Amino acid sequence: MDIRKVQVTGKSTYIVTLPKKWASKEKLKSGSPLSIIYNDDGSLLIRPPGTKKGADKKKITAEKPPEHLKRDIVGLYIVSNYKSIEINSDQISDKLREDIRNLCSRLVGFELAESNNRSLVIQNYLDIDEFTIEKGIKRMSSIVYLMFDELHEAFESNNLSVFNDVLKRDDDVDRLFILVSKQFVSRLNLRRFSKNDSLSLTEAFYYRLSGSDIERIGDHISKIALHSLNTKIKPESLKHLKEICMDLQSLFMDSLETLRRSDNVLGNQVLERGQSINDKIAAAQLADTEFNEIIIDSFGRIRDYVSNIAEYSIDLSQL
């Protein structure tokens, strides 16, 4: 690391000399234009002229197991900003084509635009500057809140069709979480700057962690709904489960509020209330000795993930 002293000329011009080795490598001359990017931590990023942009198109082969190919596509979605992805093979099967089409439906902005017997082209229509991590977390939270609502209604009415509604919403949470992950990776690239993203890099990190916990909460609500569909639950147990669901929903929303405000007082209150929910979970289990342990375990996991979000807010309050 080089240390350079600031020099002042005139009344308002601040000058810092550039390392000769770097300037020579980049072939800088007198009058060469430099791009200067302001980072939220107070640092500056200096880019020399002619910095190459990343390629707009990525070509990959389909000569691998379909699941491996799909994981590669999701990885490209998260870590890159290619305008298109071309998948080539000696023979594209109808099943692979349909698998890729279904995968694109789970990736916001991705669309299978071209298709023939030897290649598939996925077009990227996503403008990540129109999407922020905060917006993604807010939208994920709203969907999970509705899932809690529907789960509570299902326990109250013992209506199997409502359990099915819960399951359908989980896909939307997953789609948004992948998009939040993509935005966070983009945020790590200091060469890119979005004026719509007001989070510091540290805040973005904790919001990304929260997004992971919100996604897992959605998964466990779905798991509870799925097993409730296939389990005969006694009326007394349904009453306990309804109460636990309402308590966790309230706790979940408070944890998000404390994250938004970076409030360590409210964060500690959420953690303390989370401990008291253990008693209700135990009561629900005692009410039915044959009760499905998977449902009980999922409620406990939800409580843990909510507590994680509250702990993040306590960390952020120290900034």
Estimate nothing, just give the exact number of structural domains. 3
Q: How would you spell out the order of helices and strands?
A: EEHEEEHEHEEHHHHHH
What would you give as the CATH superfamily of the largest domain? Phosphate transport system protein phou homolog 2, domain 2
CATH fold assignment of the largest domain: Methane Monooxygenase Hydroxylase, Chain G, domain 1
Q: Give the averaged pLDDT, no decimals.
A: 88
The top-level CATH class of the largest domain is Mainly Alpha
Strand content: 5-15%
Describe this structure in words.
This protein is an alpha+beta fold and 319 residues long. The protein has helices spanning 20-25, 66-79, 94-104, 133-157, 160-188, 201-229, 235-261, 264-286, 293-316, and strands at residues 7-9, 13-15, 35-38, 44-47, 57-61, 84-88, 110-115, 119-124. The chain has three domains: 7-47; 57-128, Translation Initiation Factor IF3, CATH 3.30.110; 129-316, Up-down Bundle (Methane Monooxygenase Hydroxylase, Chain G, domain 1), CATH 1.20.58. The chain contains nine helices and eight strands. The strands form three sheets. It has a four-stranded mixed beta sheet, covered by helices on one side. The model has no long low-confidence stretch (mean pLDDT 88).
